[in-house]
Design goal:
Strand content: under 5%
Shape: globular
Number of helices: 8
Radius of gyration: 19 Å
Order of helices and strands: HHHHHHHH
Distance between the termini: 8 Å
Length: 229
């Protein structure tokens, strides 16, 4: 393959890494401007997105999320994997950008932003998991030749690792609901009461964000190398 095409293919997948970088820049800037202490272990991402909760920093968080969604959409459009996975990524990133950019006045549905955020998460997670599985299998098959079963096993293990924080978040919520239903929604009050961090939904939400960010960058690098090979 000509050198200039190889370079272009690698550059074409840069939007994924740039989107992740802008997401975390916006989040960190918003957290630094939070009017009181922001403890990510007991405070959810949504606390950084509201004008009432974080008047000096919410635009940073929304801008980071919106740009991540836009750059992610561009990256997903440039991918050439199975159409179903690409559509899931595109839909997820589209709703991600909408959730951050659309003002409350345009969303007349109750909890409209929450619904958009859920749709974004489901789309991005399903798309990344699906494309990651396909890409890892393809990459391993090139190295392991005929070891198809082993390549699929390794790829499945990495996919399950991406699912673990989500499963733990659900388990934590179920535990709180069943065992300590008197607890209010996760907040700094939990820390003051000595509630363990591992049953905090906010903790696992942030871990999930970190894991998906890492997988997104890894997937961008993997697909770029496969295209350039």
């Amino acid at each position: 393959m000509p050198r200039h095409k190889t370079i272009l293919q690698r550059v074409a997948y840069a939007p994924a890494a740039l989107g992740v970088l802008l997401f975390w820049v916006g989040i960190v800037m918003a957290a630094q401007r939070y009017p009181s202490e922001y403890d990510w272990r007991y405070m959810t991402v949504s606390r950084l997105l509201g004008a009432d909760d974080d008047p000096a920093g919410y635009l940073w968080a929304r801008a980071g999320i919106a740009l991540c969604g836009l750059f992610g959409f561009v990256w997903a459009t440039l991918l050439a994997q199975r159409r179903g996975a690409i559509r899931a990524l595109q839909v997820g990133y589209f709703f991600m950008a909408c959730a951050a950019m659309l003002p409350e006045s345009l969303l007349r549905v109750p909890k409209g932003h929450e619904m958009l955020a859920i749709l974004a998460f489901v789309g991005i997670w399903c798309g990344i998991v699906s494309v990651m599985f396909q890409s890892i299998v393809q990459a391993l098959l090139r190295r392991m030749r005929s070891a198809t079963g082993r390549a699929r096993l390794y790829a499945a293990a990495l996919v399950l690792a991406a699912m673990l924080p989500i499963a733990l978040a659900g388990a934590a919520q179920a535990y709180v609901y069943l065992e300590v239903p008197d607890l209010p929604w996760v907040s700094l009050a939990w820390r003051a009461r000595g509630v363990p961090v591992f049953i905090s939904f906010a903790f696992w939400e942030w871990i999930t964000c970190l894991v998906l960010s890492a997988y997104m960058v890894a997937l961008a690098v993997t697909t770029a190398r496969l295209k350039a090979a």
